[in-house]
Design a protein that fits this description.
alpha/beta; 3 domains; two-stranded parallel ribbon; two-stranded parallel sheet; 47% helix; 12% strand
Length: 162
């Protein structure tokens, strides 16, 4: 007996949409409970490639940064961030804040910016400062000097370089 794959697909999609709709009141209640109900929320349900769709929404909605939950996976980078999250981090055009599943929210007061004091770090530093301003956070630059580092003490102390 032949199976109608289109009917199965439509049934799965309808189930996903119903599950999505059921979660909206829970998210709004969670925001209210944490006194965050004043923050506007919008919801988009898309089908297809995760990275492509996130970048599409980032572009269409003028998103400043993405917050993404992670549960972890295999491999050191993937176990730190999860495979979906690591794909998004390395592929989209805005910063990604990866939040582990068990994390409890705490206000972001300080952001570490790693640098080798290169000219190309300036653009990333500017983006970091813009993000920090939204959080009302400080930015601290971090440079780890190794034995074969090409960064001199003069470069580090030169406030005009970066």
């Amino acid at each position: 007996m032949p199976i109608n794959y289109a009917m199965i697909y439509d049934s799965i999609e309808l189930t996903n949409f119903d599950h999505f709709k059921e979660k909206m009141p829970q998210l709004r209640a969670l925001a209210e409970e944490r006194k965050l109900g004043h923050i506007p929320m919008s919801h988009i349900l898309m089908d297809g490639d995760l990275v492509y769709n996130i970048q599409k929404v980032v572009d269409q909605e003028s998103i400043d940064f993405v917050v993404m939950g992670t549960k972890g996976a295999t491999g050191w980078f993937d176990s730190l961030f999860g495979t979906n999250t690591s794909s998004v981090i390395s592929s989209i055009s805005v910063p990604v804040l990866s939040v582990p599943n068990e994390a409890k929210f705490e206000k972001i007061d300080t952001i570490a910016f790693t640098t080798r004091f290169r000219k190309k770090d300036i653009e990333a530093m500017i983006k970091t400062l813009v993000l920090a301003k939204k959080f009302r956070a400080k930015v601290k630059c971090l440079h780890i000097k190794t034995a074969d580092s090409d960064v001199t003490e003069d470069t580090i102390s030169d406030g005009n370089h970066i």
